[in-house]
Amino acid sequence: MTAALLACDWGTTNLRAWTLDARGGVVADRDFPGLGVAKLKPGEAEARFRDEVRPALSAERLPAMLCGMVGSNLGWTLAPYADAPADLDDLAARLKAVDGPDWIRIVPGVRWAGFNGQGDVMRGEETQLFGWLAAEPERGRGRRLVCHPGTHAKWMLVEDGRLTRFVTAMTGELFAVLKTHSVLKSEVAADDMAAFDAGVAAAGAGDALAARLFTARARVVGEGRPAEETPSYLSGLLIGAEVAATPALLGCTGDEPVSLLGDAKLCGLYARALAARGIEADVHDGEAAAVAGLFALYERVRP
Questions:
Q1: Longest CA span, the chain
Q2: Do 235 and 270 contact (CB within 8 A), yes or no?
């Protein structure tokens, strides 16, 4: 296979890159954990991309399509958001061209007024979403609820192929902060599915989360549960509260099936929490969706 495009998902902590052939098939791929935009100095992205990313994939002369935080004020150059409702063509129309002799485009990300009028934004997840939609035309018909678990989980409402509304839940970041810097901190990170399930049950309807969180400590010091269970219990409680309460912020009834898009292990935990509430969920690979999204955008604007 001959490479025709360099595609990159360039986030805060990591850069994932692929070369794709003329039909979107992966020719080669590479991780660059040291090149997350949060680790770069201002103005450094261009040189690191030219001197490290391109040579590593023998892609010095290829056109490039980039998504993620590389288009933020922390990244290479600012790619202004597209406004929801938005579809793939709206993103293609707002791709940011990088100054210079090479053909490089950055995906803009999406913003919305937010469930409470205070605004919401995403960068990177929209590319995965539209790649997932492009992979199966049937997904672009009707109404679908899609969740992208992660540090900042995204719940996205798709109607006839358009991203109409979305909500960000800082569940992953909250878990990390509580596990590391709070009274719930723990050095142990072993998976304990029984404790996870107990946390999901303790999440209830997802309300009064601050009060429910303290049960992670009370069950240890007051009920004698092993402290080693706390991280799994805390994970279940946070994810359980998220899946219970977040869909309503999008105007959903809470019993709609959910398509989970992202890391397989994390999606599996969300599927488990959803199943405990009697909600169907299907899991899809986020990396494959990112590749499909970047290629679908390239097809619309290729030089």
A1: 66
A2: no
Backbone angles phi, psi at 61, to 5 degrees: -110, 5
CB 285 within 8 A of CB 148: no
Torsion, Cα 22 300 127 273, to 10 degrees, reads -90
Query: Are 118 and 191 part of one and the same domain?
Result: no
Domain membership of residue 162 (yes or no) is: no
Region 151-165: what's the mean pLDDT? 97
CA dihedral sign of residues 241, 247, 250, 253: negative
pLDDT by residue (tens digit) across 162-189?
999 999 999 999 999 999 999 998 876 6
First CA to last CA across the chain, in angstroms?
20
Q: In 3-state terms, what secondary structure has residue 122?
A: strand
Q: What percent of the chain has a predicted confidence (pLDDT) above 70?
A: 99
CA angle 151, 157, 162 (to 5 degrees): 115
Domain with residue 122: its CATH number is 3.30.420.300
Q: Which domain holds residue 224?
A: 169-285
How many of the other CB atoms lie within 10 Å of CB of 252?
A: 16
